[in-house]
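Risk register update: the risk of archive-format incompatibility is retired. Evidence:
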Amino acid sequence: MIFPLLHANAAVKGPFLAAWSFDPLVTFCILLAGFAYGLGLQRVRQQERRAIATYQIVAFYAGLAVLALALLGPLDTYNDELFSMHMLQHLALMQIAAPLLLLGRPVQLALRAIAPRRSGPVLKAVFRRHWVRWALGALTAPLIATLLYNLNLVLWHVPAFYTAALQSEHIHELEHALFFGFALLFWWPIIDPVPRHHKAQPAWALASIFASMLFGIGLGALLTLANSEIYPTYLSTPKPWGLSPLDDQQIGGLVMWVGGGFLYMGILIALLIRTFGTGEDSEATKPVVPTAREST
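Archived output:
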């Protein structure tokens, strides 16, 4: 399995595993996020006795690594030639990188790292505005966040929009920004939002993930079971590993159908265990009382 990944694509864009690019803006943002998170960890450790959970730190930096793989690595380098790589890229952005980053609780870390006398006035100034509170509440409402997340996914797989993204670098960047942005909005109320009263109730969280799983499975099945190529752009691009355009499309559909389905199912099971798997009251089922630093 490793040999073709190392060598089979030299005629296209070089060895697959070595096909990395370094977009200045993306690289800078990822490095800045990692540095800022590390600085926040250091300040919290100096100021407080309560340590940051190890899983949060691992999750955040793993999320950054997945983000780098999706936007700077082979998944991005080869998405113009392979539909399946493009689907893996979308899956990495929406179902892996976004929830991992949020599991790291970067906003909560920032609030703990900044002195209350500095963070308090800023938060009050921002959330005092009615339209800010209304927008935050609307965008993080489970129904709206789920609709935006899934309708955006479907929209960009309409052949006209998909082709436009492949033909224009700016549209392609917009596509990725919307995928990642709506993914953050979708997972935010499910994982651990700030303020805490925006946290989705367990029933809503489970329903949102289940509905998204159905959307992804349905779209993936449509792509896998199609008898002809849906995206004509891939008909004229060279394919590594002897793949035909239809083979590539079907593999991409399976990525969404099976790969995405398993990821959603794993998250559903984890959420069910966290919510109902123990006899103790979990964080998800306790009433949420915002702290002074998180309140609006």
